[in-house]
Write a structure and sequence with these properties.
Elements (H helix, E strand, L loop, with lengths): L8 H20 L1 H36 L1 H17 L5 H11 L3 H11 L5 H11 L4 H13 L2 H21 L21 H16 L3 H35 L2 H13 L9 H9 L1 H9 L5 H14 L1 H11 L7 H32 L13 H40 L1
Length: 411
């Protein structure tokens, strides 16, 4: 267990002052705070809860059953050379890509607690695994907010391409004070047999009956979901309070001055500021801004890549008690947002052309489907992500076996 950092005197004073000021402002504008909190609660219940709950519960169960260890052994030869993270990190990446914030951070934190990765490896992992999901970008943002589905695929392509660029760049992040973790299984023998052996050993080490494992997974998942809902509500209130208190206007002038050399449309700046605080509110503001469509899409990519202070607070809690520092994650998210924004105009025309020739499958908006239907889509995405991950592991193992056979034949 890492030692708790001692906060500085200025950190203590500033935190207390900011909290007191926020409380006074909420008391000053109670109706605004109430309306914003209700909006945050609706976003949590309609979108976040059904989208994340199956992933949270099933990821806990799969880790207890040893399936994650099985996948880790098979994908170790792929993940470590490319991203300098252990093979089990592939599970966090797949779940993060399929489900969105903050499941990648939750799994990364659990992997570090189980000592399946070191602190620096966990920092590299959450930079790669904690991403937005396609249903949010295409369904919620493009269909629900913009009313133009094609924009969602451009934003999603820029988002995923840039996050893999960030993941590769983070491989150069130094392993400070900690050596790289060893592969999960160091036993000799066939890679597939070692994977099954590690699955068995992991299940024995866990030792909980399946009923207890299932109950613990559901209980812990709902606890995490309630915390996420609280974060969304608090930061929804914070963003609205900053607006009515006039602080957003001051920040807008400062940001407009800083972005003047880049010829950024001034009308899009308020939505970027809202996105700094909360991702969904920022995307909605960008979709309705009085700016050209391309600028609105660029701002949305920037906001989704950055993910907002609300998600950062969720990530901080998910990795609490580990050796994973939040500073590298925040740097990675800022880089992710900038790269996604830069890639959006580059991918705009090619993806529009592809969409015109071969339309992608349509995804529903978040308020066009029921709670249970959305949860069903989330569970299906989970099964597909897990199946693709296991299939990829077996293909890589097969290719590795063929390569070894060819080398022996040549020798």
């Amino acid at each position: 267990m890492p030692s708790k950092p001692i906060p500085s005197r200025w950190h203590i004073y500033l935190s207390a002052a900011a909290t007191v000021l926020l409380t006074i402002t909420i008391v000053r504008y109670p109706q605004v705070a109430f309306t914003a909190s209700v909006e945050g609660l609706k976003i949590w219940f309609d979108i976040v809860l059904p989208a994340l709950l199956p992933f949270f519960a099933m990821s806990e169960i799969l880790m207890g059953l040893g399936v994650v260890h099985f996948i880790g052994v098979l994908l170790e030869p792929f993940m470590r050379p490319l991203f300098r993270i252990p093979g089990v990190g592939a599970f966090a990446v797949a779940m993060g890509l399929a489900s969105g914030y903050p499941i990648g951070a939750k799994i990364s934190g659990q992997l570090q607690r189980d000592r399946l990765c070191t602190g620096p490896e966990g920092e590299r992992l959450i930079a790669l695994a904690n991403t937005a999901d396609p249903l949010f970008m295409v369904g919620a943002v493009a269909v629900g907010m913009f009313g133009i589905e094609e924009i969602g695929w451009t934003i999603a392509a820029a988002h995923y391409l840039s996050v893999f660029m960030v993941g590769f760049l983070m491989r150069f992040w130094p392993d400070t004070q900690q050596p790289a973790s060893r592969p999960i299984s160091s036993k000799r023998g066939n890679l597939l047999s070692r994977a099954f052996s590690e699955l068995e050993q992991a299940r024995i080490r866990d030792g909980r009956p399946f009923g207890q494992l299932f109950g613990d997974a559901v209980k812990d998942s709902f606890t995490s979901m309630l915390f996420i809902g609280g974060c969304i509500m608090i930061f929804s209130v914070l963003g609205r309070i900053l607006d009515v208190a006039g602080i957003t206007d001051v920040m807008q002038r400062v940001l407009a001055f800083l972005l003047r050399p880049f010829s950024v449309d001034k009308a899009i700046i308020p939505s970027i500021l809202r996105g700094v605080v909360e991702i969904t509110i920022g995307c909605e503001a960008a979709s309705g801004a009085n700016s050209p469509l391309l600028w609105r899409a660029i701002a949305t990519s920037l906001i989704i890549g950055w993910s907002g202070l609300s998600v950062h607070a969720q990530v901080a809690t998910m990795v609490y008690g580990t050796n994973i520092r939040l500073g590298p994650y925040v740097i990675a998210r800022a880089l992710h947002g900038v790269l996604a924004a830069l890639l959006t105009p580059i991918l705009w025309r090619p993806i529009s052309t592809v969409m015109a020739l071969h339309p992608f499958p349509s995804l529903p908006g978040p308020w066009q489907i029921s709670f249970l239907a959305r949860m069903g889509l989330s569970f299906r995405a989970f099964v597909m992500a897990l199946g693709i991950l296991i299939l990829l592991a077996f293909i890589l193992n097969l290719l590795r076996s063929v390569k070894v056979t060819l080398i022996r034949m040549k020798s």
